[in-house]
Write a structure and sequence with these properties.
Number of helices: 8
Mean pLDDT: 92
Shape: globular
Helix content: 10-25%
Number of domains: 2
Low-confidence stretches: none
Structural class: alpha+beta
Radius of gyration: 20 Å
Number of strands: 26
Length: 389
């Protein structure tokens, strides 16, 4: 049996009722087949242990990973602010293995070692990773994974676990366990497996390029020798301090005008003139301030899926995995469901109306900027991953 995916998405308020709905849907779609692996996304309103335990009880040994979210997306229910979304991989020609490393914020190398033991000689075609959204250094996690996996040439994609507020309680799921400080990975293997990805934001640089002259981790103190906050205030005045999340910083990683990753501005210290971001911004980095309008943000969504479709070399994608930033949802506000409509319309336009789509709103997105490059941490960005044969 060739690769196929089974999607179940429930917004039942009660956890037990949501579990029943998920299992009933999966049973119908599986038609007696046994899933090889699964990815689950859900918000904090649900009893994580109960959901994970029920899935493992129904399919003992299921290779299951996932993350907490700030909302879920699917081709079944569209956008939901509070729900449980489950995707199962089925087929004799796909091999799924999962791994976990605990407390990467304390000992990253050991956590990566533990997470990768599941490979055991396999040749992965794709690595999907979920890691903490508010603890540790996600860029360091990505770099460590890339250093170990670059010899396989497999893309590394994924996201940082999310929540409805910026709090250290985001969760990563592994089997029947939910941890707040863990690294979980899923590897998809198989000779005929085909994957592609696209990444875009819709934000665009303004005001020219600058150089970070003083930073510590994810806090930037000086740009071009001036307090970092002055760069923002020179464009928008003091009103920007109340809406920093709408103006992420473009950090260039290549010579092209689009060769950048975004760093979401989380807070500022007006006395120090510093700005703290949702990811590292090293000294010496070339940066630009950015802006966006909601229509431009949705054009980023369309670009993400269009690039993934153009790069797909297989026959037909089976699954589109979407990781979009929670800040995009916050900017869209009541129009948050427009992002999933944009994605579904893009599939229709590409004559791919039957592709399953599952995703979540994250606190950071993981994907290479281009096909030949290493994986990067993004903020306020939309990542689309296509999986098929």
């Amino acid at each position: 049996m060739s690769l196929r995916t089974v999607l179940a998405h429930s917004d039942e308020v009660d956890t037990d009722e949501a579990i029943s709905a998920l299992l009933a849907r999966c049973e119908r779609e599986l038609a007696g087949a046994t899933p090889r692996g699964g990815i689950v996304f859900m918000t904090r309103e649900y009893d994580h242990a109960a959901v994970l335990g029920a899935l493992r009880a129904r399919w003992p040994g299921l290779a299951l990973v996932g993350a907490s979210t700030d909302g879920e997306l699917s081709s079944e229910l569209g956008y939901r602010g509070d729900s449980v979304c489950l995707t199962l991989f089925v087929g004799d020609d796909v091999d799924v293995c999962v791994g976990q490393g605990l407390e990467p914020s304390r000992n990253l190398e050991l956590a990566v070692d533990h997470a990768l033991t599941c490979l055991a000689g396999r040749e992965p075609k794709l690595c999907i990773v979920f890691c903490p959204g508010t603890t540790g250094n996600a860029s360091a996690v990505i770099d460590a994974l890339h250093a170990r996996l670059s010899r396989y040439g497999c893309p590394i994609v994924g996201g940082l676990a999310g929540d409805h507020e910026v709090a250290p309680t985001t969760k990563q799921f592994f089997g029947s366990q939910a941890h707040h400080d863990s690294l979980v990975v899923m590897f998809l293997c198989g000779d005929g497996l085909r994957v592609s990805y696209g990444v875009a934001s819709g934000w665009f640089p303004i005001g020219g390029k600058h150089v970070v002259t003083r930073s510590v981790g994810n806090t930037v103190y000086a740009i071009d020798g001036r307090p970092a906050l002055e760069i923002y205030q020179s464009l928008w005045g003091h009103k920007v301090t109340a809406n920093l999340g709408e103006y992420p910083l473009a950090v260039y990683c290549g010579p092209g005008q689009d060769d950048f990753v975004l760093r979401a501005a989380m807070s500022c210290d007006e006395r120090a003139g510093s700005v703290t971001f949702a990811g590292d911004v090293p000294e010496g980095a070339v940066v630009s301030v950015t802006e966006v309008v909601p229509e431009g943000l949705l054009s980023g969504t369309e670009t993400s899926i269009r690039n993934a479709i153009q790069r797909f070399t297989g026959d037909t994608p089976e699954l589109a995995l979407l990781i979009s930033c929670a800040a995009r949802k916050w900017v869209l506000g009541s129009r948050a469901d427009a992002e999933i409509r944009q994605l579904l319309a893009a599939f229709e336009g590409a004559s791919l109306p039957k592709v399953q789509l599952a995703g979540f709103y994250s606190f950071g997105e993981i994907c290479p900027v281009d096909v030949a490059g290493p994986p990067r941490l993004h903020n306020e960005t939309c990542v689309t991953v296509l999986i098929g044969r």
